[in-house]
Amino acid sequence: MSAGGGSLLWAEGVTKVFGGLVAVDGVSFEIPTGSIVSIIGPNGAGKTTFFNMLTGLYKPTTGRIFFDGAETTRKRPDVISSLGVARTFQNIRLFATMSATENVMVGQHSRMRAGLFGSILRFPRVRREERAVRERAEETLAFVGLAPIRHEEPVANLSYGDQRRVEIARALASNPRLLLLDEPTAGMNPQESARLTAFMERLRDERELTILLIEHDMQVIMNVSERITVLDHGEKISEGPPEQVRADERVVEAYLGKREP
Amino acid sequence: MSAFAKLKADRRLARGTAVGVIALAGAFPLFFDSLATQLDTAIYVLAYVCMALGLNIVVGFAGLLDIGYVAFYAIGAYSVGWLASDHFTGIGGDSGVHLAASEFASSLSGIHLNFLLILLAAMVIAAVLGALIGLPTLRLRGDYIAIVTLAFGEIVGRIALNGDSVSISGYALTNGQQAIAPVDQPYLPLVGYEFDSAFNLRPYYWTGLLLVLFTLFVNFRLRDSRLGRAWIAVREDEVAAASMGVPLVRTKLLAYAAGAALGGVAGAFLGAYTAAINSNQFQFSFSIFVLAMVILGGLGSIWGVVAGAVALATIDRYLIPEVFNDAPSLLGLDFKLTQLSFGIFGFLLVLMMVLRPEGLFPERRRRLELAEGVGAAGGMGVGEESVHEART
After folding, report:
1. Which of A9, A64, B155, B375 has an alpha carbon within 20 to 30 A of B211's alpha carbon?
2. CA-based nearest residue to B112, from B81, B142, B136
3. Stretch A164-176: mean pLDDT
4. B172-203 pLDDT per residue, tens
5. Is residue A216 less than 8 Å (CB to CB) from chain B?
């Protein structure tokens, strides 16, 4: 097999059934390398379920998923993460009692090598690795704009916005190639959303990241995405550049209902 | 003072206190007669501290509620029973199998390995058993893990009890309540020194203290490592941990194995000290006893767990049976305080839960969790099902 030319991630007829509910129904999907693409759709459309299949938290009922040319369909989440897929969660899922730095250090787990005995005996190699990982965590936190004074603070004490920052830093720390953001602007005001939009573009351009976004904020979506995929009741109903999707009759229908004839 | 500077100062203070406490602990036996009851108590206390610290890795760090920990005490003790006694008389001919054993033990039949080798063997065997017991719990969480571990603890206890009728090529597995005895006293081959609990308990005490220091070292090193962070991450949020690249199966099994290894080594030490490996020692209540030490001290807090173990072990082995045992008769009541041991422990635990639910010296993290009601936040983005799928 070979993934469609220039695509970093490639899903083929992915379906997920929970009991009698078809949450995602035969969705095929591609993310071109170096782009920012979005998935939108009404609540319950299957966006997050689709996300969870891409990251290995759910196993697809049928269909296949490829990342960077290699099949990841039934791989464990930690394996997919170590291949270079990082994510954030819709409801922030930080390790609440750990400090911001520690959270970001966990994000680098798959990039580290220290094992049980290495950790106990703390060989020079382990010590160096530990220091490097801590430094990288501090750098990444600075990059996402968390004030240094908050780095050692347990994340539960941080403000909502700062927690979002730490979550993005934790995802970035593993040096991923694909970043999945699940409603990153939820709960943000327009200024903060605009700042995040600019930040995503910076990630794409400076860090050569490919970004997949689930969003409800149309302002953000239309500004940042090169391509939008629309899900409704688990099915892909539209796909294309923002202008095209915005004009699509079926999308309007999915969000607002059928127009009276 | 900045948070970081404060952290540094705290750390220096903690280190100073630790050195002081260890020095005092080292000098402790010199204040007592070499066969004093207090020394006997202290030896048990030290062994229990090791076990509590081992369990702390599983329950405190990784958040896996293990209530079958007695299994590792048993396996450690039986390592001594099997490998340092005449239980297997006939193996290796009339002379037996000996490896760096004392002169006296070398004259006996059966298997007689050196005590230090047995400590190592006990660690390895217990670690393997710990990982095996962990396997069926991998797809479970919380209370369900407790039930599985409880069952395994019981299985090991039953095997110990009825092992006298289990015969493997003519040798009974355990001797049950008849006990495997006597067991060789520890022997240090290079110095040529053999312990003798009939004359001097101090060497046992110092050995126990060394084991505690070793266990503390392992606990601290692991906590502040890649693995320790992974354990805490798994405890806080499994789904997020897996998504960040933490392999759940491996991480949890390592917690079980590391915790079990420390329980095994403490069990071997205690087995050698009591010199009789009796199945009565390995009952379910012991698992709860060790768990109570961890909870009393503060889940996940290393010094707290040490304090909890010292407190409970001292009450159990000294205050109740030696000091206050006759107190009821002074009040004109006709019973011994030892008959109320479990009631007293239950009462203490309830009292703790009411007055200080986070433990004597809570972990910084836990303190926060209880004070502000934060903690393992189950997000709604990923349902329970994902947790099961993610683990396969």
Report:
1. B155
2. B81
3. 95
4. 999 899 999 899 999 988 888 999 888 999 99
5. no
- At a CB cut-off of 8 Å and minimum separation 6, what does B152 contact? B68, B71, B133
Q: Considering only CB atoms, which chain B residues are within 8 Å of A181?
A: none
Task: Express each pLDDT in B98-117 by its tens digit.
Answer: 988 888 888 888 999 999 99
- What string of DSSP letters covers B36-49? -HHHHHHHHHHHHH
> Is there a contact between A120 and B217 if contact means CB atoms under 8 Å apart?
yes
Report how far residue A248's alpha carbon sits from residue A242's, in angstroms, rounded to the nearest whole number. 10
Judging by DSSP bridges, how do beta strands A178-182 and A210-214 pair with one another?
parallel
Q: How far is CA B60 from CA B81, B256, B351, in A?
A: 30, 12, 21
Which residue of chain A is at minimal alpha-carbon distance from B375?
Answer: A96
Residue A3 has pLDDT above 50, yes or no: no
| Residue A160 contacts B where some CB pair is shorter than 8 Å | no
**Which residues of chain B are modeled with pLDDT < 50?**
373-388, 391-392
**How far does the CA of residue B82 sit from the closest CA of chain A (Å)?**
28
* Contact flag A109-B244 (C-beta cutoff 8 Å): yes
Instruction: Name the residue ranges covered by the structural domains of chain A.
Output: 1-84+176-261, 99-174
Q: Would you tell me which residues 88-147 of chain A have a C-beta closer than 8 angstroms to some C-beta of chain B?
A: 89-98, 102, 105-112, 114-116, 119-122, 126, 129-130, 133
SS3 A176: coil
Token pair, residue B218, equals 């392992």
- Flag if B239 and A93 touch (Cβ within 8 Å): yes
Q: How many interchain CB pairs under 8 A, A with B?
A: 163
Q: Looking at the predicted complex, does its ipTM rise above 0.90?
A: yes
Say if strands B111-113 and B97-99 run parallel, antiparallel, or are unpaired. parallel
Nearest to B49 by CA among B290, B339, B220: B290
Was domain A1-84+176-261 assigned CATH 3.30.1050.10? no
